Amino acid sequence: MITITFDDAVNNNNIDIYSRIFREGRNNPNGCQIKGTFFVSHKYSNYSAIQELHRRGHEIAAHSITHRNDEKYWSEANVEAWAKEMAGVRLIIERFSNITDNSIVGIRAPYLRVGGNNQFFMMEEQAFLYDSTITAPLSNPPLWPYTLYFRMPHRCHGNGQNCPTRSHAVWEMVMNELDRRDDPSFDEELAGCAMVDSCSNLLTGEQFYNFLNHNLERHYRTNRAPLGLFFHAGWLKLNQEFNDALIQWVDEMLDKNDIYFVTMTQVLQWMQSPTELSSIRDFAPWKEKCEVKGQPLCSLPNACPLTTRELPGETIRLHTCIDCPQNYPWLEDPTGDYFAFKK
Question: Taking every annotated instance into account, which residue ranges of this chain make up the domain NodB homology (predicted)?
Fold first, then answer.
């Protein structure tokens, strides 16, 4: 299993990247179109585009309302602050992308800053299924996702990270660090990297292609833990050579009969009901998202120019297929109705 994820706002700056990677006809061996997971932050997101990603069977997950540029804030936030950020962005996405199937069950914290027990207390209270923020140091073999009922099976990795120390009824879709070497037989050892775009030694499409193959082998030839490829779309947008290499590699993987590009939740569905390769083509939880149902809700979404008291002086456009709210949704007012300010 391979998971491709993207972080941050979904909008006209990156929709073309997603459309190219996840184009119609690029199918897994079971005939279903390959799927990705999008950890969505609120500001500048196009909710009609998110609605279309969801309609096509991709997974939408929470990445905060503010994406506040303060790592300490995320490490030290209390339960209420975490709830406003993550349950709040889930509410915004559900409302303005018309997502009604309770499928937004995962979160990833901005800057991969783990929020300690407070983050996971919030997740339990708000019925989130999994987190994908914790990074595991480069290891052979890599790790499978695990639950936080028990102690993490690796050290708390990263500078000043605030990992959970108590038991929590939450899955951790752990971010296995990637081996950034494109030729491990000749290169000296380098520190691992969690986000693909943080593997700063990759300079050419050929290097990136070799890097993908090497990391696939690390997973495929050992314990077959899911291979996670975690991106910011801007990295591919600025490097057409990398974009081309990724698509070439994905197509080559799909020529095999035992590699599937799936969402985070689909990985957990398989782990909860392990199914042999001989039967995986008919694995019901994966087939559920196979058929794209219905037509896009709107071809010309409302482009709502909105303000909020919480961001004085800013006017931000919110693109949605539903009616415009009164105000730009934010922490204290996720519906855009100013309910929090009514006396």
Answer: 2-113
